[in-house]
């Protein structure tokens, strides 16, 4: 998956996702959450997710049957946590039901 493809997916998800409407993937949920914290469009982020965590591994983990997991990593200047219940946390800011 290319950076442009991930960011385009995130842009679509960011414009459609709310706390009541889950995003389509954990990758786009992370990109959207980081962009929100930065106050920029997902296409304008200066960092790539793939440099911080394997996007395919994150997607595979999210498909896991259980929700009792948490993955933490640094993304640029941000500390990110992705939880099995669909929550994304960026620098302490919680985005629930994102995927």
Your description of this structure?
There is one protein chain. Residues 1-20 have low confidence and may be disordered. Helices cover 36% and strands 18% of the residues. With 99 residues, it is α+β, with helices and mostly antiparallel strands. A four-stranded antiparallel β-sheet has the order 1-2-3-4, with helices on one face. The protein is globular, with a radius of gyration of 12 Å. It has helices spanning 3-16, 26-38, 55-63, and strands at 70-75, 78-83, 88-90, 93-95.
Describe how the helices and strands are arranged:
Layout (H helix, E strand, L loop, with lengths): L2 H14 L9 H13 L16 H9 L6 E6 L2 E6 L4 E3 L2 E3 L4
Antiparallel strand pairs: 1-2, 2-3, 3-4
Helix pairs in contact: 1-2
Strand line-up across the major sheet: 1-2-3-4
Unreliable runs: 1-20
**Helix- and strand-based class?**
alpha+beta
> What is Rg?
12 Å
Helix coverage percent of residues? 25-40%
* Span of the ends, CA to CA: 18 Å
Bulk shape: globular
Report the average pLDDT across residues.
Answer: 82
Number of strands: 4
In this structure, how is the largest beta sheet organized? Answer: 4 strands, antiparallel
